Amino acid sequence: MKKLYTILSFAFILFSINERTNAQSVGISNVAITPDPSSILELRATNMGLLIPRVALTMTTSNAPIGAAVATSLLVFNTAAVGDVSPGFYYWGGSSWKRIFATNSGDAWQLLGNSATISGTNFIGTTDAIDLVTKTNNLERTRILSGGNILFNRSTALFATDLFEAQGNATFPDAINGFTDQAAGNAVFGQNSAANGTSIFGYNSALTGIGTGAGVYGMTLQTGSAGTVGDGSTVTRGLLGITNSALYAATQTQNLNADGDALYAVNSAANGALTGTAIYASSGQTGGATIIAGLQSLSYYSNSAISAYNASTLNTSKGVIGAVSQIDGIGVFGNNSAAASTGQGNGLYGQTFQSNGIGAEGFNRNTIGTGVLGTGNNATGSYLTNGSGGAFTGTGTGSYSFATTVGSGTGVIGVGNNIATAITSVNGSGGAFTGSTFGVVAYKSGGYTNNTGGGLFIANSTTSSGVAVGYRTGGTNYKVIDMGAFGGLVSTDVWGLNGDKDRKIMFCPESPEVLFQDFGTGILVNGTAKIVLDPIFSKNIVVNEKHPLRVYVQLEGNCNGVYVTNKTQEGFEVIELNNGNSNVQFSWFISANRADYINPVTNELISKNEGVRFPSAPDSPGVILNQSSQTKKEKLIDKPINKQQKLVDQTEISKNRGK
After folding, report:
1. pTM: predicted TM-score of the whole model, two decimal places
2. What is the CATH topology of the domain spanning 511-607?
3. pLDDT score recorded for residue 61
4. Residue extents of the structural domains in the chain
């Protein structure tokens, strides 16, 4: 019955189509309809739709799975997501499949935006040589020319080479206003990767006149910055001014505030000792100074690179102040660049006639800074990374100090630990040093090498004899050792019997070998006692046939006498003679050879101690004792010359640029 119904339905459809063929229009519907005469085929239903054939395309340029003879405009619904096709309607365009619209109708640019777009494939624009125009209020706002120029408020380019142009007018006088609220950002950023290119170029193209229009104008309300900042990074100038005018300077700075500075130059790198400068000026004119600076005065010093003169009567007035914030910069730099000779020219010279004044003072406010750095002999200057008042370097002598008073002069006075009073000898000395923990600290670098030490003290200039401290010779380390023909002794002082003014000397016992000694008490129990030495003492001695343990026992009670046996590095035994069984206390004293000093980590021999007996004494230290000194007389700087300085007309340029 179902088969018969299907055949009858199909026949009815054919009959319906046939009935309307002569009218050149075909209508298909589940109810009787009259097709629209303007259509060749009309489908009409209230609860059904048109189902386009569903196929699985492989890519837009492949005719599979339809076959070779694909009719142009053939419509299919693709069910595959492969290659460059995705589910949706496609039609054959003659050589490839063309997507009509996605299942979500997203192929058109939507008012609320699109998703799943493909960069390089989807775009807004034209495919021919026609400009792209955008408007608001039916007025043109932007235009992208077919050649690529981007214009705002213009329809033609001022210059064909401009990629971007913005035109200001009476309504919008500012053509471009870059704005950001990010501290790490830039409101306007220009970049040019060409070596001879300009990143940002400002040009006032009005006719030549006396106007105040600027090529580039910068303003800021932040006290930590400047209206205009030029940064040359590490390779070039930060700011360059150029002019060919005799009336105007290449760069002019001015400040109308009485408390303001017209020019402030600073090298702002972190504090250091490199070669940067705050101001560098050069001139080939000998009729004046390269730089003239006057405070309440027009006087200057002739034939000088820099002339600074202060006529102020204030006690705090200064002739020259140099300041820089660059870490490798220099506040004031003096250089005598004449060829090397025996002349007495100075790189920097300071003088004063005041009793409490300082001819030259160096002050570093960094907590680990160096106040003064002096370098001679064309050497490279060295300084402490933790800073100091002064650091001096030379190839033969790093620092030379000389006291001229014969009876009480002190060449060098050093005071540490913030101690207020320096301790010196009333008879003078080469150096006097004071500290709360150590007055003097001496250090010898370079590892364990023979004939070197931490300090050398010489008392006789004719024999070059002395005492070395922390000295090494013959592979053995010595705390204190006599050198040359000095013949000194190790001693200490003690109180005598006649009050606090009576002090006596005691001497240390000395030995031909390197020995350690210890002592203690013990007690015989039924005639025997075993003494165990301190493990630290045992660790640092050597006991063998060549270096036996030497033990001395003093009985403190009545017994048959004792003998010592089983002597080892760890201890010994005391036995009563004649198999006695006394219970007697005794004292003992031992002497043992010190073991070689070995680094427990690297197993390196630091000091040879075993087998050392009457080693040869070191030779004379060979100290240079006869270096001469020379006195240099400095001449005073000439008085300044008064000259009327020609002032350049300075027109204050100011603009109200507040937004």
Report:
1. 0.41
2. Immunoglobulin-like (2.60.40)
3. 92
4. 2-102, 129-166, 264-330, 435-510, 511-607
